[in-house]
Amino acid sequence: MAQTNIALADADFSKFDYDATESGPDEVSGRGGGGGTHEVRNVLRALRRNRWLIVSIVAVAVVLAAISQLLATPMYKSVATVQVELTDEEGTNQAEAEARNAIRVQNEAKIYRSRAVAAKVVEDLDLINNRQFMGSNFVRDGELSEQEHAAAVTKLTRMISVVNAPQSDLLDIEVTSPYPDLAADIANQYPLSAQEMRVSRRQRMRRRMLTDLEQESTRLAAKLAAAEKKVAEFRAESGMLEGAGGSEDLAQINRVAVEAASAQALKSASSARSSGVSRAAGMTSTANADSPLLQQQRRRRAELETERTRLSSTFGAGHPQMVSLSNQISELDQSIRREEAAVQAAARQQAAAEAAQQRTLAESERDAAAARANELRGMLNEMTAKAYSNNANKAQLAQLEREAEVARSAYMSTVNSEEEVRSALGIIGVNSTLISGAVPQSEPFYPKPARTIAGALLAALVISLLIVFARELLDDKLRSPSQIFRMFGLKTFGMFPALDRSETTDMTLENNPVVNEPHSVFAEVARGLHTHILDLAKPNKTQTVFVTSPLPSDGKATVAISLCAAAAAAGQRAIVVDFDLRQPSIIQDIQRELGRPDLVDLLTEPGERIRLPAPQKPTDSRELTTYSPVVVSMREPVKNPAAVFTPDNMRNLFGRLNEDFDLVVINGPSALAVHDVRSLARFADNILLVMRWGQTTVPQIEATLDKLANRVDGAVFDGVDYADHARRGYQDEVQYYMQSTSEFAHSGGFAAEIRNQLAGFANGFKKIWARG
């Protein structure tokens, strides 16, 4: 026996007896905390079970990170900052303006990330011939192919990163290179190359647009000239001047009508004036007629009269001076009368002449007004007739004018666009401006050993924890009594250690660890199982135990033989009846070697009995009398099982067995492999479920319990790897016992722990792969 033949000279027989108290305080009695504490403990136990896997993953990650940092080429980063030109229109919706500006910044960032700008930078800096950029192994042989040029552009795009912060108009152009000067040159060249490319593209586009507009304006000018010519020809043919056919005609007719009425009124006025002048000529008065000589004579007479009045106070009337003055006044009065007559005659002649002149002018005005009125009436008639004619041609003229106006609008719009494009040829649009140039860095930004190793440590720790939790979640295999009790409410009666394959294959009634190695762990577990079975027995009655498992090869035959051997060693008459006839087992091999009546004989011959071997007398009076275990199975396959395993035969068989034995162990078939398990279970007092440690899964147990109608009394683990179980840290008797032995310390150490952890992870991955 490998790693299980451990001497237990002072061991307690109940050391490996598992009952409900072994499920832990949280699972059974609730002592030690609530559900939250239980979950925390489960997590801590899972971490403890996988601690070496976590340590190995973290160690490998840290070592790899350290090696990568040591072997990494130092990289330098240079950053150039550009500012994007935004729009700030007054009177517009602020939200719309901000949205447009955000799109403008995003578009500018996309332009800087484009391959077109990268190709322009490659061309401007002649990076094709730069060994720092192309690599020391680059050798240019002749002209550069398109693939090589594209590879250079791709390399540059991988070196550059454009970062734009939210709600900001600044763009950071980050260039990473092993050479700080090259990184700074590229970062500073990017805005210049982008601007130059943008300008050249705009100029080319504008020139193409200008050419198209010039051609279009020439075409529209010819079209406009033709339309205007049609309008002029139609006006000439129809005799329609500018404005004819509209309100201008009516206004002109009204003006002529007013002029004609005015001329007629003037004629009447002139006739009346002529009559009035004739009558007024005879009414002219000459009393007030005057002349300069008459005025002078009158002033002279007034002076002489004044002088005579002055002298009269001094001289008498006969004084010569007085006489002389009187004579002068008389002569002067005669002269005045003659001058007045002459003046009045002249005034009358002048008035008659003026009256004749006024009469002649009035008659002329009358004749002119009459002629004017006749002429205007003729013009009015002609204009009225022409207006009616223009009105008839108005619709066709309007159509021609509309066509001419449309042609004129199209032509003027094209001419304006042409002028705008021609003016824009000299304008360089600015979309972004370099505000902070890049400078060569003296300190590399990569590698950063401390930060990288710390990040690798943290990432490896997180990944290892995720792997551990994924492994635990995916691992539905049963390994501990606490799992069995917590999930199914079953007590675990024993955990049989794993045996070598040769020991399992060569096991007989005499070559059994329970008999040959009574102080081994295997024997202790078998005796503990027998103790639990005795606790289930009824007083003074043969006990029948049905042993089954979910699937074949779970070890139920070994458990059945070991239970029978432990019962026989404890002084009970015990027998194993093998009903697992579809699978070859060690019980069938033992049956063939014994040469006793087999199961068919016992079923078909009611009088046939198994002779119980004689009890073995103890050499020491302090020991009990023991029996040898008995095994009954099949020597050969049954041709007609239905005729042999009838209910009557089965009842007769178990009746005889109950008379001859104290304990009947039925080695039944696997519960999930055949359909007659429940039929056999009816003849048993108790049902024992055997599970393969680390192989039997939760769904298998659930299906088995459903098939057995939940009549299982206890569970047994077979094939337990005690060392692995102890390393998993379930905190049960197996762990504490193995930790107290020197064998566990030498069972493989850290390397074995890592192998087991990795194997468990591989199995979980295989399960995911199989399910996917």
Automatic annotation (TrEMBL):
InterPro entries: Bact_polysacc_biosynth/exp, GNVR, LPS_length_determ_N, P-loop_NTPase, Wzc-like_C. GO terms for cellular component: plasma membrane. Keywords: ATP-binding, Cell membrane, Coiled coil, Kinase, Membrane, Nucleotide-binding, Transferase, Transmembrane, Transmembrane helix. The keyword Transmembrane helix applies. Residues 397-472 form the Tyrosine-protein kinase G-rich domain. It is a multi-pass membrane protein. Gene3D superfamilies: P-loop containing nucleotide triphosphate hydrolases. Residues 40-125 form the Polysaccharide chain length determinant N-terminal domain. Pfam families: GNVR, Wzz. The chain crosses the membrane at residues 52-72. GO terms for molecular function: kinase activity. Residues 268-320 are annotated as: Disordered. CDD domains: BY-kinase (cd05387). Residues 268-281 have a biased composition (Low complexity). The keyword NADP does not apply. It is found in: Cell membrane. Its EC number is 2.7.10.-. Residues 210-237 form a coiled coil. It comes from the Bacteria. This is Tyrosine-protein kinase etk. It comes from Croceibacterium atlanticum. The gene is etk_2.
